[in-house]
Structure formats: structure tokens, C-alpha cells
């Protein structure tokens, strides 16, 4: 039976979804970005974005997103590697992924209790003689909680890349006299780079727009683009400026997606396509 006449019909749900929930919201954000508080058409929002305040805010957002992504990668890669070596690797992977199913707000409030002045972490510090410390509402607590939340999303693509890695390539590297570091640098890392890029993408992009964690964990001492958008829409009611920040945030995300995009057509090792 020939289904070619029906094929255009199959794309209708997908096209409708893209138009209604992707293109239309972005177009609406761009539209509102050209209006001021009084509802007048203006380019001042875009001019103001390049002022020192918003430039510092953008740099700060990228810095914290970079730190979160870096620490997440440093913990996720060895974790994913050792998971591939365990006997029940799928079970251990599931145990790591399960916490991501818990509501983000619940996990955030759990860390407020853990890091609070009367929480178990400070109780432990008191026991060992260090004394109570202000852990909550600091850069450390913000980065730590963010890394904890994002680490399953970094582990999963790296685990998949490592799990698909042909062990014969590692054995061949060892047979040719390469040590463990050389094998990792010249064989394992290049062959799993697509997984790393995917992990960086799914961590760095949402880390740019964090706002709930900055309020509850960092106590507004950390201001990101996401926090600025929330303040413009809900506090100052300046939808134009909030939309302008959102436009640049979408642009940054698109650039990051282009930079971290991966292709499975070939794998590069030492500049050669395999």
C-alpha cells in the first residue's frame, strides 16, 4: 500500500507543535522586547542591555554556568567510566538517574535544611571542632547544589558514549605500548567527545537561566540572566526589558548549541576521521 499521499498529514502535529510552542513564544518575546513600560515602541531596551550593569550580569551568568558545567564534567566523567566497568551498570545508572525525577523545589528545600545553621552539616562541623559555618547563601552552596542537580544529565550521554566504545581499541593501544594516560588522551577521550559535548549542552544551557536556586540557595547573592528575567517580569513589571534579556538568552543558547553540536558521521582521532 502506497502511503506517500498521507505523508504530509503525518507532519501536521509536529508542525503545529513547533509553530505554537516554539516559534510563536519566541516571536512574542521578540515583539515585547521593542516596547517600554509605557507601551511605546523603542530600541532603548537593546541599548540598555549593553550597559555595564547587564554586561556584568551576562559575564556573571556565563562564569557560574562555566563553573557548574566544569565541576559537573569533572565528577560525571570518572563516574560514568567506572559505571561501565561495574557488573550491574544499568542498575547503578538507574539509581543515579532516579533523583532527577524528584521535584526540583523539593530537592532545593532539602539542601536548605542540610546547609542551614542548625542542619546536619553544621552539626557535624561542631562535632569535629570546626564550629558552625555559614554555608547557605554562598557561592559554594549555589554551585554545589547546581552540580548535584545537573550531574545525572551529564553522566547519561557520557555513559552511553563510553558503553559503546569498542574495547578492542583500548587493547590495541595498550599492545602498541601506550600507557593509561596516553590511551585515555588519544583513544578514549576522542571517541567519547560527542557524549561530552551533549552533556555540556544539557548542563550549560539551563545553568545560564537558573533563577529558583539562586533565590533559595544563594539568597539572591548570585544574579543570573534567569534571575534578571524573573525580576523584570514579576517585580518591576518591565516586560520589554525582560523580553530583551530573554532574546539575548535565547541567542546565547543557540550559539552554544552550534558550538557543542556533535555529529555521529565520523569520529576524529588525531586529526583523522575514522
From TrEMBL:
Keywords: Cell membrane, Membrane, Transmembrane, Transmembrane helix, Transport. The chain crosses the membrane at residues 12-34, 62-84, 91-115, 135-159, 199-218, 238-259. It is found in: Cell membrane. It is a multi-pass membrane protein. The keyword DNA-binding does not apply. Coiled coil: none annotated. Residues 58-260 form the ABC transmembrane type-1 domain. Belongs to the binding-protein-dependent transport system permease family. CysTW subfamily. This is Spermidine/putrescine transport system permease protein. It comes from Sporosarcina psychrophila (Bacillus psychrophilus).
Amino acid at each position: 500500500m502506497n502511503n506517500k499521499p498521507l505523508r504530509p498529514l503525518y507532519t501536521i502535529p509536529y508542525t503545529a507543535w513547533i509553530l505554537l510552542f516554539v516559534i510563536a513564544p519566541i516571536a512574542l518575546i521578540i515583539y515585547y522586547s521593542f516596547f517600554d513600560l509605557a507601551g511605546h515602541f523603542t530600541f532603548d531596551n537593546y541599548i540598555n542591555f549593553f550597559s555595564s550593569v547587564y554586561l556584568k550580569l551576562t559575564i556573571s551568568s556565563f562564569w557560574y554556568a562555566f563553573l557548574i558545567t566544569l565541576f559537573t564534567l569533572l565528577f560525571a566523567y570518572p563516574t560514568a567510566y567506572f559505571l561501565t566497568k561495574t557488573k550491574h551498570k544499568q542498575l547503578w545508572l538507574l539509581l543515579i538517574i532516579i533523583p532527577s525525577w524528584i521535584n526540583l523545589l523539593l530537592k532545593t528545600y532539602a539542601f536548605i535544611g542540610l546547609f542551614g545553621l542548625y542542619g546536619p552539616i553544621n552539626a557535624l562541623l561542631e562535632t569535629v571542632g570546626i564550629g558552625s559555618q555559614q554555608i547557605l547563601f554562598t557561592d559554594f552552596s549555589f554551585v554545589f547544589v547546581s552540580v548535584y542537580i545537573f550531574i545525572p544529565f551529564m553522566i547519561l550521554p557520557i555513559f552511553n558514549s563510553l558503553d559503546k566504545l569498542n574495547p578492542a581499541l583500548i587493547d590495541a593501544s595498550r599492545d602498541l605500548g601506550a600507557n593509561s594516560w596516553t590511551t585515555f588522551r588519544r583513544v578514549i577521550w576522542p571517541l567519547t567527545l560527542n557524549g561530552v559535548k551533549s552533556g555540556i549542552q544539557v548542563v550549560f544551557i539551563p545553568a545560564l537561566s537558573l533563577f529558583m536556586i539562586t533565590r533559595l540557595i544563594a539568597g539572591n547573592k548570585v544574579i543570573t540572566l534567569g534571575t534578571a528575567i524573573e525580576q523584570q517580569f514579576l517585580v518591576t513589571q518591565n516586560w520589554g526589558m525582560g523580553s530583551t534579556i530573554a532574546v539575548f538568552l535565547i541567542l546565547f543558547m543557540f550559539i552554544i548549541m552550534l558550538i557543542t553540536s556533535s555529529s555521529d558521521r565520523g569520529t576524529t582521532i588525531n586529526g583523522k576521521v575514522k
